């Protein structure tokens, strides 16, 4: 049928060439072509050249089926080669794994600058802590001065302890020992000394409260001693940046109304739980995987934003407590406990800034 339609479309010479050409479709079709008489274009026996049903059609149908099956197989192979969600999460991280965290930190820094300009210029309708400070009695001033004196002493004791442990090889090897037992012992010492310090009652002078405070700061210095491997220039820059952040945020808290940041306690506690969970998850999911890099970015940059918010909250909480406690009441104002709050905020900010600076220097060297 196909050859008959083709003969009606071509010229006479082409039809004669087609009639004389050897047909190799099948043996039966070649014999029928040999037995047919010489043809002319007008009376050419096209029935002799007509292929029998069942010779070419099954072949065409089989080819179509095979091509369709090949396409299905190639499509399935392509789908099977595509990485699954688990493979993507456990695969190597991309170059922009920390880009979202960097953007969030940059946005928080911009908000801090805007808040500093807004409250520093006195654009708020309510009076600030700085305005209230002119009416403070002397005991309120003494409480705030004692709190920040203990804060500075806490930083000095921590730095001295970190330097001493770093210079002692046995102590440094003990601190850097890996494993579940070493991690649990370290966490137990940090949490135990901190809880002991806050549980004791404050008395002026040198007593059990002050000794427990010094022990807690020494333990924190021993824990951060391995950071000395980052090098002096990195730690000095991290200290300068931390001092700038703490000073700027303290200024924002002092220039803002006295209760502006005291309502942030609930959201900050939720954020602390998220950051703590992401830090624990990094023990099983290292930053060499995509999900591990995301958790590390959350713990690093999210923790930087979180503890900056805690610094605003704790600064105003110190002022509120110093104003609220009576001068000769049964419960004393505790400057050590309040100093430890901003001390932990500043220490966490310092650790994260040092890690960011160290990783940036490593990328520049590569």
From TrEMBL:
Localization annotation: Membrane
InterPro entries linked: Bax_inhibitor_1-related, GHITM
Q: Where is this region: Disordered?
A: 65-93
| GO CC terms, sorted | mitochondrial inner membrane
Record's CDD domains? GHITM
Regions of compositional bias (Basic and acidic residues) in chain numbering = 65-89
Membrane-crossing segments per the record:
104-124, 145-166, 178-199, 211-232, 238-256, 268-285, 291-313
> Keyword set for this entry?
Membrane, Transmembrane, Transmembrane helix
Q: How does it sit in the membrane?
A: Multi-pass membrane protein
Supply the name of the protein. Growth hormone-inducible transmembrane protein
State the species of origin.
Answer: Drosophila navojoa (Fruit fly)
